[in-house]
Amino acid sequence: MKVGFYQFVPEFGNVEKNIQTMVNAVKAADADLIVFPELATSGYLFLEQKEVEETASVVPGPMSDAFSKVAVEKNTAVVVGFPEKADGVYYNSALIATPDGKVQVYRKNHLYNEEKLFFKPGNLGFPTFDVKGVKVGVLICFDHMFPESARTLSLEGAQIICHPANLVLPGFAQITSCSRALENGVFWILANRHGTENRKGRSLSYSGLSRIVDNRGKVLVSAGADDTGFYSVEIDPSKALDKKVAPLADLFADRRPELYNEITK
Hints:
Layout: E1 2-7, H1 15-28, E2 33-35, H2 49-55, H3 62-74, E3 77-86, E4 89-97, E5 103-107, E6 128-131, E7 134-138, H4 147-155, E8 160-164, H5 172-184, E9 187-191, E10 194-199, E11 202-207, E12 211-213, E13 219-222, E14 229-234, E15 244-246, E16 249-250, H6 257-264
Parallel strand pairs: 1-2, 2-3, 7-8, 8-9
Antiparallel strand pairs: 1-14, 3-4, 4-5, 6-7, 9-12, 10-11, 12-13, 15-16
Helix pairs in contact: 1-3, 4-5
């Protein structure tokens, strides 16, 4: 299975241009699964709720139709972050468009910092999605700091975890992408953006360094801090079904939930 990410600089507020950039990237790529950054359709640095409302998309709608169409045409799955409007509520979400024409959504469960001023936390739990017979899960940016998130997806059978992000804490996700992959025996696709957003005296810089990590925590491919482009690698997702790290040591079979379930709640 060939998996990849596209690292770039979304233009704040220019939803149509950002969507077209990503659709063109999918058309030019050769992969079974492509992951784009968090809030890639809109940009990240919101200053007021009106900006969220003006850039948000509903599903189904024109945005999801565009990605579904190219996913079917290219026989690839696409994961892309976007601000979602659903029943009058706004979420920091990720769209999952698969080659069979299905469109599904994950809503970020752990909002970071000022995101709490503009979005509601997710209400869909941690679902998994089928991509060509492979179970895939999605986490968005700050979700990675909560080990229970990746563990929940992994216990649900996820073999690949897609991680759209807009990282402003340098180095954090580069560590957790390896540790979460290793401790759960899963593949990890971190799709970050790069560049700096300057808006009315406020500024945020993003760290790039998107990467794909294997089920033993090894980095298979990585983008630079300021690179724009598509990166991909061939993986064998079936390896994520084997949780043994030694003949008698199994990451999941050796768990002792009776000892720590209540502690972690």
